[in-house]
What we know:
Layout: E1 6-10, H1 14-26, E2 30-35, H2 38-48, E3 52-56, H3 64-72, E4 80-85, H4 93-99, E5 103-106, H5 111-122, H6 131-140, H7 159-168, H8 174-181, H9 185-199, H10 204-213
Parallel strand pairs: 1-2, 1-3, 3-4, 4-5
Domain Response regulatory: 6-122
Protein name: DNA-binding response regulator
GO biological process, one term: regulation of DNA-templated transcription
Amino acid sequence: MTTALRVLVADDQALVRAGFRMILTADGIDVVAEATTGAEAVDAVRRHRPDVVLMDIRMPEMDGLAATRHILSGTGDAPRVIMLTTFDLDHYVYAALTAGASGFLLKDVTPEHLVNAVRLVRDGDAMLAPAITRRLVERFAHRDAGTSVAHRDLSVLTPRELEVLGLLAQGLSNAELAGRLHLSEATVKTHVARILAKLGLRDRVQAVVVAYRTGLVSP
Length: 219
């Protein structure tokens, strides 16, 4: 029997939390806890060990960015974090990406997109297709966000892996990569896994940051 996907919803708006809980539970996803502040989110992750956290950027006491840094800097298996934002060019979002967030959603996301995003991120296939993520990376990739993520030597990658990384940075899914390169999805997944391992990266979002900030791909 497959273990239910466990999600924490962190947002200071009760209606947002209730709406997301309703959408997720209707699709068989277990919302294990809710939080109204970043501090509550950090504590809830410690107590409930969710697979995915839906994290609002702007919350009282501790904002979502600080909470994400706390959660992802801990030892052990950290959850995947999806940032929630009302504004599609929120200036905090890129900093959250460099802190390790695995994707972004606008709060007016459709139910289907919300469910798909949570499942994709849980499986390690960080969502890059939404235009918000591409625009943020393209807008901020050249800036120094105080992270060592971009300091990677791409010479450790094979020519094929460089090709895959370049296409991945354009926001292509595994299926799209497979079609473009005339490979099976299984082979594409192997290439992506090797890229992440060789570069010491957490997920595909960090790989996109590296691709832009090392100059492999230009905005």
